[in-house]
Amino acid sequence: MPTFDADGITLEKVRDYVWEIPQEGGMNAPARVLASEALLEEIQQDKTLQQLKHSAHLPGVRKHAICMPDGHQGYGFPVGGVAGIDAEDGCISPGAIGYDINCGVRMMRTNLTYSDLQGREEELVENLFSNIPSGLGGGGVVETGMDGIEAILERGVDWALEEGWAVEDDLAHCEDEGVRHEADAEKVSKKAKDRGSNQVGSLGSGNHFLEVQRVTDVFREDVGEAFGLEEDQIVVLIHCGSRGLGHQVCTDYLRDIEQAHQGMLNQLPDKELAAAPAGSQLAEDYYEAMCAAINFAWVNRQLIMHRTRQVFERVFDRDWQDMEMDLLYDVAHNIGKKEVHTVEGGEERELFVHRKGATRAFPAGRPEVPAAYQDVGQPIIIPGSMGAGSYVLRGGEQSLAETFGSTAHGAGRLMSRTQAKNEFWGEDVRDDLREQNEIYVKAQSGSTIAEEAPGVYKDVDEVVRVSDALGIGDKVARTYPVCNIKG
């Protein structure tokens, strides 16, 4: 059997693009990496494989812990990691979901073509940057009191609909229709609510962005038609999460879980994997607080989309409805969800599916897929770097068997932010993108652009190629940046 040796960890090749770390010691299941050898060479450069192996020690892990093709080192649990953990006799781990709860992406279609934008890129990017809050700290589209925040936390995008920030069609094209009903605002600390009160409708900083893109390729015409995508069409991609509120929820519960469940923590190889046993009060409280943060993030992206529609109306002097600026889909990629999956022996079990830097990828027919996409499969949105483009996929037929219905979430980082700032100069990156690629970028600082330079990321084309080859996420369309704003 072919093997791959990575700094003391030996992976066995199961088949093309599937590598397994055998179960040993305290592991409760094997661990698998889904990658080409080229991607595996990059994945082994940091602690991703060690973290993946550690994640298989979590109680109740079923089948195998998984790392996606875009995997890289994270906090305890690798980014690009997926674990299906038994909801009855397993656990839930905040670190395996992430600090930016429901960091995710939404794509909005338009009936504009690239030629409609040419010559107006600078006007558009300046207007978007001026009207969509970004960067560290406060400032959002709307500022709300405690009653408003609690309504957002419990009602999600339904709150935005009632307040005039959404239309019914937006809810129908959002994962879970934009609300996790298990959410309980009382399980979210006042500190977290305070952090969120002036950040509703803001991009934040880091790798979050809003990008105007053009569709360059449609690979599956029938699915592209179902998604409303065609070549040369303009679309808008929004990538952000739950801001300071979600970060505080994760921080609060990690601290509480470390203190209350020291016994479980002592059995794990990394304290950053701290977990609450299924059925415990803290597991229930965290799940309900996490669902509330998920709702906050969906409202956050909804308000950004609403403001984007208004900007396009001013720049192009047309109603957003006339430009058919409709939501294609919104999907999370830092999330924990109770889902029913087939596990070892063909048994169906309810699991806490932890997806950290991984996207749900359900195929056609799965009841959670929106009605509009039931016949073709759930849309998957995979952003690439500023200079490489992004992809729209659909849930693949093999995703449920291979990955608990999951695939990659982006290109995946190759270098840390510190290293990126040492190697790239933001203004040079911005100027090169404009002069060589006709991509217009506007950010709060040059360092933000340097941190997100195209050379910082893996090859998104290769990540998507592996996903498509494995049948977990099928290529539908490719997009390329026109304008990009960042914090």
UniProtKB/TrEMBL annotation:
Record bears the keyword RNA-binding: no
Q: List this protein's GO terms for biological process.
A: tRNA splicing, via endonucleolytic cleavage and ligation
Q: What class of enzyme is it?
A: ligase
The active site annotation covers 409
Q: What is its EC number?
A: 6.5.1.-
Q: Which intervals carry biased composition (Basic and acidic residues)?
A: 182-196
Keyword Nucleotide-binding listed? The answer is: yes
Q: How does the record describe its quaternary structure?
A: Monomer.
Function according to Swiss-Prot or TrEMBL: Essential for tRNA splicing and maturation. Acts by directly joining spliced tRNA halves to mature-sized tRNAs. Joins RNA with 2',3'-cyclic-phosphate or 3'-phosphate ends to RNA with 5'-hydroxy ends.
What protein name does the entry list?
tRNA-splicing ligase RtcB
**Which gene name does the record give?**
rtcB
